[in-house]
Amino acid sequence: MDDSAVDLQLDRPHSARMYDYYLGGTTNFPADREAVSRVVTAFPQALIAARANRGFMRRATAYLAEHGLRQFLDVGTGIPTQPNLHEVAQAIVPDARVVYVDNDPIVLAHAQALLISSGQGRTAYIEADLAQPEEILKTSVLHETLDLSQPVALSLNAVLHFVTDDAQAYRIVDTFTDALAPGSALVISHGTPDFSDTLESAAGVYRSVGTAVGIRDRARFTRFFERWELVEPGVTLTHRWHPDAATVASGITDSESSTYVAVARKLG
Ligand SMILES: C[S@@+](CC[C@H](N)C(=O)[O-])C[C@H]1O[C@@H](n2cnc3c(N)ncnc32)[C@H](O)[C@@H]1O
User: SUPFAM superfamilies recorded for this chain (predicted)?
Assistant: First the structure.
């Protein structure tokens, strides 16, 4: 696409580029890095937390691919980072189909990396707002790629804390839940203040640069799964969800993670 067609506001910190910097990516600029340094001053564990979140995404996606899921809907995708979700899924299920959704022009500008599917599978990208799930569910691109009469794994990783109003956040998940077939899966990761006194001040840095953030405690996080059956071990922290050897070896603490996660299946 023609990058000049959108104003990427490189002079302002931006949450997707800040997250890219946490992950060691190169799609970030001085304003993003300066904001990250303020986040890290408030919450020194931020880089560890972001990388642990990405590790959870990889393990949850692989788990679901190994347990029969062939279709994935990833909302709040972020700037492409190796491995992207479709690469994890298609390494296990080569014909897996993946739809990515983000509302950020900078993610769209880099979306090409998300569209390099395996030969047998398929990927697509939709620029849309999580706050309007009905619009996402109506798009022709989604229906050309996914069959909603069959199970879909919906990932909402590190994105629902940008929807600060509880009623709106629960309505979003309920709307997707209504649209998904039995056997579908729900994957959520979400920042929490439960293990650190300082994550809230890091959220304040985001607010100061114009990005609303609302981290949630365990009860408010668990509410997202009201209509779902949790997969073992239920609601936990990134590094505690089916940890692989590298995760165990990392020695990450609950405070460093400060991110609740869960994976659930939809009953028939
Ligand atoms: C912290 S990144 C998470 C990336 C990826 N899901 C992960 O967990 O590694 C959050 C992403 O959510 C996107 N996002 C935030 N609010 C959104 C909204 N209302 N609709 C769609 N995407 C949104 C941001 O643009 C950003 O790319």
Answer: S-adenosyl-L-methionine-dependent methyltransferases
DSSP 196-247: -SSHHHHHHHHHHTT-------HHHHHGGGTTSEEPTT-SEEGGGSS--HHH
How many distinct structural domains can be found in the chain?
A: 1
Query: Residue 1 has what pLDDT?
Result: 42
Residue nearest to atom 14 of ligand 1 (CA): 76
Residue entry with tokens 């029969």? 68
Atom nearest to 79 CA in ligand 1? 27
Atom 13 of ligand 1 has which residue's CA nearest to it? 76
Ligand 1 mean position to 102 CA, how many Å? 6
pLDDT block averages, 10 residues each, the chain of length 268: 62 92 94 96 95 98 98 96 96 98 91 87 96 98 98 98 97 98 98 94 92 96 98 98 96 97 94
CATH number for the domain including 207? 3.40.50.150
Ligand 1 pocket member 53 (CB < 6 A): yes
Task: Give the ligand 1 atom nearest the CA of 104.
Answer: 25
Q: What residue numbers bound the domain in which 137 lies?
A: 3-265
Measured distance CA(126)–CA(139) in Å, rounded: 8
Distance in Å, CA 32 to ligand 1 centroid? 15
User: Can you tell me the distance from the alpha carbon of 58 to that of 241, in angstroms, rounded to the nearest whole number?
Assistant: 11
16 lines ligand 1 (CB under 6 A): yes
Write down the pLDDT at residue 38: 96
Nearest 10 degrees: CA dihedral of 154, 159, 10, 4?
30
Is the CB of 225 within 6 Å of ligand 1? Answer: no
